[in-house]
Design goal:
about 500 residues; mainly alpha; 22 helices; 2 strands; elongated
């Protein structure tokens, strides 16, 4: 229909120009006809080029449609493609790349190139990934999806990111997709007015386009126009609730509006649509953390990190979750690992120092009742203060209270340890006294037997000498340490 309309428009334009040419020619037979003829030829060439390009793209689209049975690829590279899929799920990306590249050589489809690019990106080879995203795009100019991913790994040496990506954007032949991508590109640049402008252009062409609604809603969300953003997202959800981008951004909006249960619902919908998005899993974990469901939070974070091991926000949250699960040593070890990591983002260090300090302030990490943990908490709180603005008096006051709490905690623990040391000393002294007492008793018990044995011996008895009676043993007169009264007094004072 579009092709017919364009062709008809060109015929009408050509006839109109011809009539004007004839009329003008009657008046200016020498100069005007040649200029008019050139204009007509240029217009004709441009229109023919456009029609040819559209025909090629439609042919490519039909070709790709023939390669699929629903969502299942059934083209001539089916064996290599299927082998790559199997390797991806069993061994990961590294085992899939070469198989998908072989498939692409046999059947150069945009989706196959996209898979190769995605795997290179996950393996950390951004240069090859970027090249394959462009290859995916250049295979099918109607599909803008590869450009979104390419933007985030754009090589710095390629020049200005925005300008270069705009060059690619202008090659998109689908006008709706082109306006949506340009709108998104402006959003990433921070130009919200042009974001809104191009999103509305897309919606004029396709008023129910979910992607256009999402980027428009994001712009209003960024401008803190929450109700307008909510209205757009709500309308989009009624049209198509199974859009990952929509459910993801809707979750963030509801979270910022403090609607935690609604936020969790949208993030869970997003997870169902795309289970391999670490950012969504991290947000679900945060919502579980806020309800102190640390077991569920740990599960989500472990899954996120299995997909993206260098997801530092998830690692930091996992260290906090370990504290909530009373896994204090694991928590401390992970905090230390992140602190030593040279690639740890600077913007996350504030949260790292705060949570690490609170860990040592609240918990006996090593289980040895060492007062030095409070010194460590104080040192870490001072590191945290370096990231707190000087005019943030409320936060600095809170930190000062924590430092005071650490000092009091240390003092109490030191007094407790001294008390326990005195008690232990007292116990040892009493045990030693008990031992001496028992030895004395044993010795006393053995003396009468020795005396009796002496009387029955051959030694003559001296009758005139009186035997000195043995002093009676006082059973209740146990020896008491000299400082017992003082110790009891100290114990009572400390307990009070």
């Amino acid at each position: 229909m579009i092709k017919v309309y364009i062709k008809l428009l060109f015929i009408l334009l050509f006839l109109t120009l011809s009539v004007v040419s004839c009329i003008s020619g009657t008046k200016k037979t020498v100069t005007e006809p040649d200029a008019t003829k050139i204009t007509e030829e240029e217009a004709k060439q441009k229109e023919e080029a456009l029609l040819k390009k559209q025909q090629e793209e439609e042919a490519q689209k039909k070709k790709e449609e023939k390669q699929y049975d629903g969502d299942r690829y059934v083209g001539k590279a089916k064996k290599d493609f299927a082998s790559g899929i199997e390797s991806y799920f069993q061994e990961g990306c590294s085992a899939s790349i070469e198989k998908w590249k072989a498939a692409y050589e046999k059947d150069p489809l945009s989706q196959i190139a996209f898979n190769v690019a995605l795997c290179y990106e996950r393996n950390g080879d951004n240069k090859k990934s970027f090249d394959w995203y462009l290859k995916s795009f250049e295979t099918n100019f109607t599909e803008a999806r590869p450009l979104y991913n390419a933007y985030f790994i754009f090589p710095q040496k390629n020049g200005d990111k925005f300008e270069k990506m705009m060059e690619y954007a202008l090659k998109i032949t689908d006008e709706v997709e082109k306006n949506i991508f340009i709108s998104w590109l402006n959003f990433e640049k921070g130009d919200l007015e042009n974001t809104i402008k191009y999103a509305k252009k897309a919606l004029k062409l396709d008023e129910q386009n979910i992607d256009a609604m999402v980027v428009l809603g994001r712009a209003y969300y960024k401008k803190k126009m929450m109700e307008l953003a909510t209205s757009i997202f709500s309308t989009a959800e009624q049209i198509n609730p199974d859009n990952f981008k929509l459910q993801r951004i809707y979750g963030f909006l509801e979270y910022d509006k403090k609607n935690k249960s609604s936020a969790l619902l949208h993030f869970q919908k997003a997870k169902k649509l795309n289970p391999e998005m670490p950012e969504v899993l991290n947000m679900i974990a945060i919502l579980y953390m806020e309800t102190e469901d640390f077991a569920m939070a740990e599960k989500e974070l472990q899954t996120a990190l299995s997909l993206y091991p260098d997801f530092y926000s998830a690692k930091l949250n996992l260290a906090i979750v370990y504290k909530g699960l009373s896994k204090f040593k694991e928590s401390a070890a992970l905090f230390s690992e992140l602190e030593k990591d040279k690639n740890f983002p600077q913007e996350l260090k504030k949260s790292l120092y705060y949570n690490k300090a609170i860990l040592y302030l609240d918990a006996d990490v090593d289980g040895d009742k060492n007062p030095e943990r409070y010194d460590f908490a104080t040192t870490t709180l001072n590191q945290y203060l370096e990231y707190v603005p000087k005019n943030d008096k409320e936060e600095r006051k809170k930190v000062a209270e924590y430092i005071k709490e650490a000092a009091v905690g240390k003092k109490k623990l030191v007094l407790y340890q001294k008390m326990m040391q005195r008690k232990e000393q007292k116990r040892k002294e009493e045990a030693e006294e008990e031992k001496r007492y028992k030895e004395l008793q044993k010795k006393k018990a053995e003396e009468p037997a020795e005396k009796k044995q002496s009387e029955n011996s051959d030694v003559p008895e001296i009758k005139d000498e009186k035997e000195t009676p043995e002093p009676p043993v006082e059973e209740d007169s146990k020896s008491v340490p000299a400082d017992e009264d003082n110790e009891t007094s100290n114990d009572a004072e400390i307990q009070n």
